[in-house]
Amino acid sequence: MRLDKFLVEAGLGSRTEVKALLKKKLVMVNGKPESQAKLQIDPNKDQVTYQGQELVYEEFLYYLLNKPQGVVSATEDQLHQTVLDLLDETARRKSVFPVGRLDKDTHGLLLLTNDGDLAHRLLSPKKHVNKVYEAEVDGIMMEQDIEAFAQGISLSDHQCQPAKLEILAINTEANTCRVRITIKEGKFHQVKRMVLACGKEVTDLQRLSMGPLHLDPQLALGDFRRLNEDELQSLLKLKV
């Protein structure tokens, strides 16, 4: 890999900015000042430092975002703020994208990465990766709804796989309830449509988990962080 490309990928700046740093001999390769942008290096063997700090090349990035309502799960949109707008410049520069989607008015856990193979496996129906949601519902879900979810809700354009419905709380005076729903698919508006098929309506929807990833309670709406090592390793096992 060219040295200037490595420096850009390591987050040191744009191609023009890193070339300026190289001209000033502020970058060292294996302990020696280096000014040649086209120098070929091995990111896994050569040591590259800037002002005494070693730079690390990362091919893939993994972000955990607590997506707020009103933000679309896309990399660009002419009308609305996107989830990518909430991340840092490194994520945008390295073409990070959301794994699956959350509806504009749905909030909660969203994974973003540039690891296409991992994204494919997480979204593949063959992998049966659980996605867990908590919903506020207008109407009261009943035992017959639990059974319908378990058998597989039939929508107008899709036969859903068996899912799990848990009733967490019931407010009989307001005729509402709070439920937890676990599905293995991710069709358009699927959770809302499944509840609607039972004659009720979702008024608020939050995703709590996707596979081994769980929403970090320390992340405020709109905040993000890199995956920690345990989270990353649990995800990478899905690639095997």
Automatic annotation (TrEMBL):
PANTHER family, per the entry: PSEUDOURIDINE SYNTHASE (PTHR47683:SF4), PSEUDOURIDINE SYNTHASE FAMILY PROTEIN-RELATED (PTHR47683)
Stored InterPro entries: PsdUridine_s_RsuA/RluB/E/F_cat, PsdUridine_synth_cat_dom_sf, PsdUridine_synth_RsuA/RluA, PsdUridine_synth_RsuA/RluB/E/F, PsdUridine_synth_RsuA/RluB_CS, RsuA_PseudoU_synthase, S4_RNA-bd, S4_RNA-bd_sf
Alphabetical list of SMART domains matching this protein: S4
EC number: 5.4.99.-
Protein name in UniProt: Pseudouridine synthase
Keyword Plastid assigned: no
Molecular function per GO: RNA binding; rRNA pseudouridine synthase activity
